From TrEMBL:
InterPro entries per the UniProt record, alphabetical: FAD-bd_PCMH, FAD-bd_PCMH-like_sf, FAD-bd_PCMH_sub2, FAD-linked_Oxase-like_C, Oxid_FAD_bind_N
NCBIfam families with a match to the protein in the record: PRK11282.1
Short name of one Pfam family: FAD_binding_4
Protein name per Swiss-Prot or TrEMBL: Glycolate oxidase FAD binding subunit
Domain FAD-binding PCMH-type: 1-179
SUPFAM superfamilies for the chain: FAD-binding/transporter-associated domain-like, FAD-linked oxidases, C-terminal domain
GO molecular function, one term: FAD binding
Gene3D superfamilies, alphabetized: 3.30.465.10
Keywords, comma-separated and alphabetical: FAD, Flavoprotein
Gene source species: Onishia taeanensis
Keyword Protein biosynthesis: no
């Protein structure tokens, strides 16, 4: 049954946000869009007047039967996930939080997904529709039950990972998933080569694996699904029990691997079955090897060339502070090919001609 969900702190600040954005566009004054600011390290530094979405929060619609939820951008992820958990459901993309203040808007803006991503999908795969405040201060609806976007773009999907450079996402509607009936996590000691071979072999079989990470000489697996399937697979694979908290720590970059290191932290996205790269430093293999966290003093050109050689790309999160939190980098993202950059600029010029939305967050000139 469909229902209107009332959040503990339900607030609609779209009118106020729209007016501030309209004034900023008229004055050509850049805005730095802020939610919980737990993902500030991901992307380039923005110089602009802060536009906080903290007062624009609340779960506006939740239909557990249809597996659909809608929430305003300033809604804390903890609040949304608690509401889903009460109905035995979850966000399938397992988005990282990076702190208690993490918001739905930050999840969409960065598009980052957790350990379950290769088996269930990315943030973009679960977004059904969005409300976006444009430069004129209008709250527009895209996706879901609304009419086709006249600009010819699927703006709901484009907003995922755009880092707020195309407009202010004020609300998002998403598909959710039932929580698995059973779960077990395993720690299997084995060399890296054997672990990668095993993952390739198991990938061809209907095993209930939903996370696979290699770290410090051991393969870490999460099994989820029906109780009998999880139990049988656990018995077959063997290994030692692993605490489920490992996956939350990995999701939020809180494992000891990420703590207190002066070397820059890189996130490499690579095709499945890519062999180990010839980079000096330490590597954590996530997503069965498709996502790799690398701590290295190698220069950016070398790291990006290593990833590109296999059809992947590399993002620099910078060195960590005393608490182990990444601090960002001057040029975090792989430079775009000229043809792709041309389309990015055209899209930015169409939606934000005065350059007020998070200017330079992704790349220096747009």
């Amino acid at each position: 049954m469909s229902e209107h969900y009332t959040s503990p702190r339900d607030q609609d600040a779209s009118a106020e946000l729209g007016e501030r954005i309209r004034q900023a566009d008229a004055a050509g004054s850049p805005l730095r869009i802020v939610g919980g600011d737990t993902r500030g390290f991901y992307g380039r530094t923005v110089e602009g007047t802060p536009l906080s979405l903290d007062a624009h929060r609340g779960i506006t619609h939740y239909d557990p039967v249809e597996l659909i939820v809608s929430a305003r951008a300033g809604t804390p992820l903890e609040e949304l996930e608690a509401a889903l958990d009460a109905q035995g459901q979850m966000l399938g993309c397992e988005p990282p939080r990076f702190g208690a203040a993490s918001t739905v808007g930050g999840m969409v803006a960065t598009g980052l997904s957790g350990p379950r991503r290769p088996w269930s999908g990315a943030v973009r795969d679960f977004v059904l529709g969005t409300r976006v405040i444009d430069r004129a201060g209008r709250e527009l609806r895209f996706g879901g039950e609304v009419m086709k976007n006249v600009a010819g773009y699927d703006l709901s999907r484009l907003m995922v990972g755009a880092q707020g450079t195309l407009g202010v996402v004020s609300e998002v509607s998403m598909k959710v998933l039932p929580k698995p009936a059973a779960s077990a996590s395993l720690h299997l000691d084995m060399p890296l080569g054997k672990a990668l071979d095993r993952l390739t072999e198991w990938g061809r079989q209907p095993l209930p694996i939903t996370a696979a990470t290699y770290l410090e000489g051991a393969l870490h697996l999460r099994l989820e699904g029906g109780a009998s399937s999880v139990a049988a697979t656990r018995e077959r694979l063997g290994g030692d029990e692993l605490k489920d908290s490992f996956w939350q720590a990995l999701r939020d970059l809180r494992l000891p691997f990420f703590a207190g290191d002066t070397r820059p932290l890189w996130r490499l996205s690579l095709p499945n079955h890519t062999p180990p790269l010839s980079l000096e430093g330490d590597t954590l293999f996530d997503w069965g090897g498709a996502q790799r966290w690398v701590k290295t003093d190698a220069d950016a050109e070398e790291v990006r060339a290593a990833a590109s050689r296999y059809g992947g790309h590399a993002t620099c999160l910078g060195a960590s502070d005393a608490q182990g939190r990444p601090q960002g980098a001057a040029e975090p993202f792989t430079p775009l090919a000229p043809v792709i950059a041309k389309y990015h600029r055209r899209l930015k010029a169409k939606l934000d001609p005065n350059g007020i939305f998070n200017p330079g967050r992704l790349y220096g000139d747009f």
